[in-house]
Write a structure and sequence with these properties.
mainly alpha; 2 domains; three-stranded antiparallel β-sheet; 6 helices
C-alpha cells in the first residue's frame, strides 16, 4: 500500500508553506487527490512527494519551474529513455552556460570592487597621514 501525505505533512518535511505547495500544484508539478467536503482537502501520494523532492532539487540547480516540470514529466511518460536523457543533458548544458556567464559577471564585479577598496584605503591612509602631520597650532588655527 502506498503512503499518503497531507499538505501540512509535506510542507513541514520540505520546509515550505502550504501556499507554495498549492502553487506547485497550480503549475502541474503535483497532482494530489481531492478529498473531503467539496474536495477541499488534498491527499498527496508517494509519487507527489518524489515529484516535490525533484522539483526542489531542480530549483537548487537554478532551473525554472517550467524546466523542472518538463524534466520530471519526461520520467513519468513511457517514452524512449535515451531521448529523455538527451533532453535532460541539453537542459543542464544550457543552464551551465547561463551559470558560467553569471560567474564571469560576478568575477568582473569582484575585481572592480577590489579596485575601489584599494583606492578608498589609499585615500583614507593619505587623509590620516595628513591629519597626523598637522601641528597643534595648525589644528587651533582651523
Amino acid at each position: 500500500m502506498s503512503h499518503t501525505y497531507s499538505i501540512s505533512d509535506l510542507a513541514k518535511e520540505f520546509d515550505l508553506t502550504t501556499r507554495a505547495m498549492r502553487f506547485y500544484e497550480d503549475m502541474g508539478l503535483l497532482r494530489p487527490e481531492r478529498t473531503g467536503p467539496g474536495g477541499r482537502s488534498r491527499l498527496y501520494s508517494s509519487r507527489d512527494r518524489t515529484r516535490l523532492k525533484l522539483t526542489l532539487r531542480a530549483k537548487r540547480l537554478g532551473l525554472s519551474l517550467v524546466e523542472a516540470k518538463e524534466i520530471i514529466d519526461m520520467y513519468d511518460s513511457p517514452r524512449d529513455t535515451a531521448a529523455q536523457l538527451e533532453k535532460f543533458l541539453q537542459v543542464l548544458a544550457d543552464h551551465q552556460l547561463q551559470l558560467d556567464a553569471q560567474m564571469t559577471d560576478l568575477q568582473a564585479n569582484m575585481d572592480e570592487l577590489k579596485v575601489h577598496q584599494r583606492e578608498a584605503r589609499a585615500l583614507l591612509a593619505k587623509s590620516l597621514r595628513k591629519s597626523a602631520s598637522k601641528t597643534p597650532a595648525d589644528t587651533q588655527a582651523s
